[in-house]
């Protein structure tokens, strides 16, 4: 396209921050040095009071809004909510969005060189946790001169990072927006992740994680992992109304070629992902999800776990999300209330399942925008003209 | 064990019926000759009025009750419901249970010799449908001298066969018991089946289905297929209360070995299945599930589709079954009512998800037994002493 949409942040370029201070990780290992790739949208004000941090989900990255070039087919993954006049209004806020450590989009991760061996880390990259990510994001904030975020915002695994921010750095976060998340995975959530991991790790092209050394890619495994994931991202209804039992061609072929539209969709999604995402990163991200459980250190008492939090929360869930259903968000809401925190909660009626957090559902936008308006007002940011 | 339980049908032996009449299949091909392996429990009465046909599910087989030997660790898969004094009371009923065509437990299937080539059928075995199975079961009934079944009974894919019986042979079925089934798969159901198929078919040891010729077994694929299946058989609650987030050992290992109990369970289930079930059979069974849709030939009007049925139905669903949820059973119930059929429906409150249909849940047993009592009475079978 030559004309970018008027409500877009426009053309953006990622930047890279290099860190030389060793980062001690929850797994007991230390990352001696690392890069974080990130994007920013909008302008940091003189008071440095208008910064928003975006945390990404399992297969996300730093490119949350705008376009890397005029030829880019799609904008960043959260463009529906970040831009001039949008819920996260870049006319008022300065938005920071980084690729997580362990990722495969520019931040140090399994595909990066391990300086100690001068070879790619591959499967030897240390296991990351949500706490580690939050720690590294706080260092990025230091680098950018941001003492305190007006809000930290994220969906799904991103929402877990937001919750961790309120516990690790309560003094550095003024507001928390936790969308389509859960305070910990259920056994069923872990089970789906385990299927994805087994699919990747049992692919003969995985080579115990050293596929790069063999000039191979565990495409079959990643494809299966993504197919399983996709089923859990869509509601049964959304899948039903999108595909139903519609056939690709007029007749059944009584074979294993694609017959139903939903098969075609899943294979396409899986194929695309399998050549664009790093398998070791996928494994690591699913483990970070499994490990997240702030209540564990408090004998399972989530209200005790969230005691350090010191900011208002917005918690949002979606009616047909069966990956992290509304009652999982309510668990968090109830714990926050028991702990005496300020919390707004909205369960959005949406047919789109877990994926709804990415989409421009009007009621979701209204709730999200209203909360962010209040954030702006509290920070003394000028009203939009 | 040396003593078998008193309410068991005891030691049983499978028998094999060979058929030489060609069987024309829905896919357009013809099976020239075939075997059906089956078991029977109880005694066929002189009037031949007390026969019950059991239809099995995706990974089931003919061994539904009793023991093959005193050393057998577990009885047949539906032993909770078939035996002296049980819902399907073998003191009164004569029970027939056959392995479906295309199966891998003795009936003609992909592992059988193709008489035209003198090699195993493998992936060239014709695609089967629920109608084909019902057709072959009717021939087995002919062979056993059973003109009309007092009831045809099945759960899950077995329930679909029961429904098809009422449409293909309304004059040969006096009662239908359809448990934890659906009149057609949803897009999500098909999606899960497709993941299972892709897992098997993308396993390099699958060799386009000719794994036997290569001395190979697509174990990785079958294991993944079974793992995915197992998640859908258990309710989220059942998985949660069975495993929760319990760890195998005391600490996280920050690696990819088993950490959570649920991972261990799924891997074990997958491993066991991957060496005991035939991959081509699994593929074929999932396709039979996908294809089943009696309403399709009636423009989607299920009430029109069930018009030929001419017997009372018992339809049973389970509250936490999310594979074939209660509302899918209600679809069938509503269509039967609209079509003016006699139907009893029970939604059983159970925590066990889809697997509940295999288990001895008391309320389920009570409903099932009451219906079968009525069946016995209608057939003029003597009351139990």
TrEMBL record, chains A, B:
Compartment annotation: Cytoplasm
GO CC term, one of those recorded: cytoplasm
Main EC class the enzyme belongs to: transferase
GO MF term set: homoserine O-acetyltransferase activity; homoserine O-succinyltransferase activity
UniProt entry tagged with the keyword Flavoprotein: no
Site keyed Important for acyl-CoA specificity: positions: 323
Principal location: cytoplasm
Active site annotation, chain numbering: 156 (nucleophile), 321, 354
BP-aspect Gene Ontology terms: homoserine metabolic process; methionine biosynthetic process
Listed Pfam families: Abhydrolase_1
Reactions this protein catalyses: L-homoserine + succinyl-CoA = O-succinyl-L-homoserine + CoA
Positions of substrate binding: 226, 355
UniProt domain AB hydrolase-1: residue ranges: 50-358
Top-level taxon: Bacteria
EC number: 2.3.1.46
The entry's keywords: Acyltransferase, Amino-acid biosynthesis, Cytoplasm, Methionine biosynthesis, Transferase
Function as written in the Swiss-Prot or TrEMBL entry: Transfers a succinyl group from succinyl-CoA to L-homoserine, forming succinyl-L-homoserine.
Assembly, per entry: Homodimer.
Family the entry assigns: Belongs to the AB hydrolase superfamily. MetX family.
Matches recorded under PANTHER family: HOMOSERINE O-ACETYLTRANSFERASE (PTHR32268:SF11)
UniProt name for this protein: Homoserine O-succinyltransferase
Annotated source species: Halomonas nitroreducens
Gene this chain is encoded by: metXS
């Amino acid at each position: 396209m030559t004309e970018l949409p008027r409500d877009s942040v426009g053309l953006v370029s990622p930047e890279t921050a290099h860190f030389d201070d060793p980062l001690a990780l929850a797994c007991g290992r230390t990352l001696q040095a690392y890069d974080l790739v990130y994007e920013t949208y909008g302008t940091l004000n003189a008071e440095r009071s208008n910064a928003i941090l975006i945390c990404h989900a399992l297969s996300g990255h730093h490119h949350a809004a705008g376009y890397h070039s005029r030829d880019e087919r799609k904008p960043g993954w959260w463009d529906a909510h970040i831009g001039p006049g949008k819920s996260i209004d870049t006319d008022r806020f300065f938005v920071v969005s980084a690729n997580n450590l362990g990722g495969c989009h520019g931040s140090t991760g399994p595909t990066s060189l391990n300086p100690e061996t001068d070879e790619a880390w591959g499967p030897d990259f240390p296991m990351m946790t949500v706490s580690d990510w939050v720690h590294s994001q706080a260092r990025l904030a230091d680098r950018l001169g941001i003492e305190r975020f007006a809000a930290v915002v994220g969906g799904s695994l991103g929402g877990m990072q937001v919750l961790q921010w309120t516990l690790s750095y309560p003094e550095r976060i003024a507001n928390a927006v936790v969308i389509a998340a859960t305070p910990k995975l259920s056994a069923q959530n872990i089970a789906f992740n385990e299927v994805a991991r087994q699919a990747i790790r049992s692919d003969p092209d995985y080579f115990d994680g050293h596929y790069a050394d063999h000039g191979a890619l565990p495409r079959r495994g990643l494809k299966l992992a993504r197919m399983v994931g996709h089923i859990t991202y869509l509601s049964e209804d959304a899948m039903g109304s999108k595909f139903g039992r519609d056939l690709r061609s007029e007749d059944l072929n009584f074979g294993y070629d694609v017959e139903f539209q939903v098969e075609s969709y899943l294979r396409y999604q899986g194929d695309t992902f399998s050549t664009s995402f790093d398998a070791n990163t996928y494994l690591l991200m699913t483990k970070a999800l499994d490990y997240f459980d702030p209540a564990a250190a408090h004998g399972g008492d989530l209200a005790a776990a969230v005691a350090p939090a010191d900011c208002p929360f917005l918690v949002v869930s979606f009616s047909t999300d069966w990956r992290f259903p509304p009652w999982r968000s309510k668990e968090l809401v109830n714990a926050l209330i028991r702990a005496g925190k300020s919390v707004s909660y909205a369960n959005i009626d949406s047919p789109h399942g877990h994926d709804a957090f990415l989409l421009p559902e009007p009621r979701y936008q209204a709730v999200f925008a209203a909360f962010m308006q209040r954030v702006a007002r509290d920070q003394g940011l000028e009203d939009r003209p």
